Amino acid sequence: TQVIKHFLLAFATLGVPKKIRTDNGSAYTSHKFEEFLSEWGIEHIKTIPGNSTGQSIVERTHQT
Q: SUPFAM superfamilies from the entry (predicted)?
């Protein structure tokens, strides 16, 4: 998927994180994505729906 390709590029540039935090968008909740993170040993933290405060820095960075 495009999301996995993006993460692989980010890993090559920035290194592999121990944890990532995402919203509950379908791209981040798919079985394929969860399997990908598991293979890399990355803990996946999902934000609470409707709680934009926890995601505000990321949202601001991405201008969403």
A: Ribonuclease H-like
Q: What is the pLDDT of residues 47-57, one digit of tens each?
A: 877 666 555 55
Long-range contacts of 7-16 (CB under 8 A, 24+ apart): 7/36, 11/40, 16/40, 16/41, 16/42
Give domain 2-61's CATH number out of 3.90.940.10, 3.30.420.10, 3.30.40.10, 3.30.420.140. Answer: 3.30.420.10
- pTM as predicted: 0.72
Contact of 41 with 17, CB cutoff 8 Å: no
